[in-house]
């Protein structure tokens, strides 16, 4: 029996990472999770406890990944593919601490790409972000739209994309960058300062607590369910489509105010809505054009917002 193909998932104990690990394990891969557990949780991977096809290594990507992977590749053979999800994911935190954001998000990506170059990895899939676009005047946002990020987080994601293209062009490392819009779903930690608005709203609405909306609530987002995002990640791990950049969203948008009211209704209508000043570095409108992901990889979001919210609440 041939050895299982090895896929490394950086940030694999986190929200999107653990769902990605689930899908890879289900489809017969050997998976190595690299995570420093600053926000990731071992409990997110409990389903696979004791499975010999999963290795979990405590590793901070800002220090590189060569040493962390060396003992495992000696045992199981080379890493074939990498999903790079490890990141500092808070826009607000990036505004307050731009140097930390650059070190983790851009510096971490360079460490991953250097490993991929040195070990001839067959594909690196990178979790980029809609934050690279900044505030746009025309929706939906296509990948060709000029990128003018308005936060250090967006700047470092864009810089990482440029690094991916450099490594693909100059060193022959096959790469794909996926620009995630607003991902939500089970395992998103509402107690974390890095959490998305849906996990915070659902947590508070379940408890009947007020929901705080930053700004007037008219800002819009394209919320995409984590299961649909994972299908895009796994499809991008295949051969081909090197140097591709693709949006991962639904092609729909909803205002934060309407989102809050929908969640309150789903939770029984006990919470009130409160407003606070808008936060620096956050964009006003967002909706993805998703043709490229559909045409190149055959992936289309299948989960409606309400169905995704119900799954999250459950």
Structural class: alpha/beta
CATH class: Alpha Beta
| Helix fraction by DSSP (H/I, runs of at least 4) | 25-40%
Shape-level CATH architecture: 3-Layer(aba) Sandwich
- The number of distinct structural domains comes to 1
- The helix/strand series, from N terminus to C terminus, equals EHEEHEHHEHEEHEEEHEEHEHH
Distance between the termini: 40 Å
Residue windows where pLDDT falls under 50 for at least 5 positions: none
Overall geometric form: globular
Can you summarize the main beta sheet? 7 strands, parallel
CATH topology: Rossmann fold
CATH homologous superfamily annotation:
NAD(P)-binding Rossmann-like Domain
What's the total count of β strands? Answer: 13
SS element count, helices: 10
Using only C-alpha atoms, the radius of gyration works out to 19 Å
Strand order of the largest sheet: 3-2-1-4-5-6-11
Mean pLDDT: 95
How would you briefly describe this protein structure?
This protein has 314 residues and is α/β, with parallel strands linked by helices. Helix content is 38%, strand content 18%.
How are the SSEs ordered, and which strands pair?
Elements: E1 6-10, H1 15-26, E2 30-35, E3 54-58, H2 66-76, E4 81-84, H3 91-96, H4 98-118, E5 123-129, H5 152-171, E6 175-180, E7 182-184, H6 197-206, E8 211-214, E9 220-221, E10 223-225, H7 226-236, E11 244-248, E12 254-255, H8 256-266, E13 273-276, H9 291-297, H10 305-313
Parallel strand pairs: 1-2, 1-4, 2-3, 4-5, 5-6, 6-11, 7-10, 8-13
Antiparallel strand pairs: 9-12
Helix pairs in contact: 1-7, 4-5, 6-8
């Amino acid at each position: 029996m041939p050895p299982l193909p090895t896929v490394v998932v950086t940030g694999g104990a986190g929200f999107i990472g653990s769902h990605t690990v689930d899908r890879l394990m289900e489809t017969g891969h050997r998976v190595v999770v690299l995570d420093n557990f600053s926000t990731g949780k071992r409990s997110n991977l409990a389903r696979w406890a004791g499975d010999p096809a999963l290795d979990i290594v405590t590793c901070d990507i800002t220090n590189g990944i060569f040493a962390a992977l060396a003992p495992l590749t000696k045992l199981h053979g080379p890493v074939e593919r990498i999903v790079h999800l490890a990141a500092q994911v808070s826009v607000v935190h990036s505004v307050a601490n731009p140097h930390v954001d650059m070190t983790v998000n851009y510096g971490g990506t360079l460490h991953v790409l250097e490993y991929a170059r040195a070990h001839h990895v067959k594909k690196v899939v990178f979790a980029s972000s809609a934050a690279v676009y900044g505030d746009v005047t025309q929706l939906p946002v296509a990948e060709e739209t000029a990128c003018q990020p308005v936060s250090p987080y967006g700047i470092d994601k864009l810089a990482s994309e440029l690094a991916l293209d450099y490594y693909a062009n100059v060193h022959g490392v096959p790469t794909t960058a996926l620009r995630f819009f607003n991902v939500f779903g089970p395992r998103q930690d509402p107690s974390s300062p890095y959490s998305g608005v849906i996990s915070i709203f659902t947590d508070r609405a379940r408890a009947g607590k007020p929901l705080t909306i930053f700004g007037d609530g008219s800002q819009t987002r394209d919320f995409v369910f984590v299961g649909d995002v994972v299908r895009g990640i796994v499809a991008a791990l295949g051969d081909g489509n090197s140097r591709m950049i693709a949006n991962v969203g639904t092609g729909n948008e909803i205002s934060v105010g309407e989102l809050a009211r929908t969640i309150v209704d789903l939770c029984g209508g006990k919470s009130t809505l409160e407003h606070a000043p808008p936060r620096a570095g956050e964009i006003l409108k967002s909706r993805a054009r998703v043709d490229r992901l559909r045409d190149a990889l055959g992936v289309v979001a299948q989960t409606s917002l309400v169905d995704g919210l119900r799954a999250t609440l459950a």
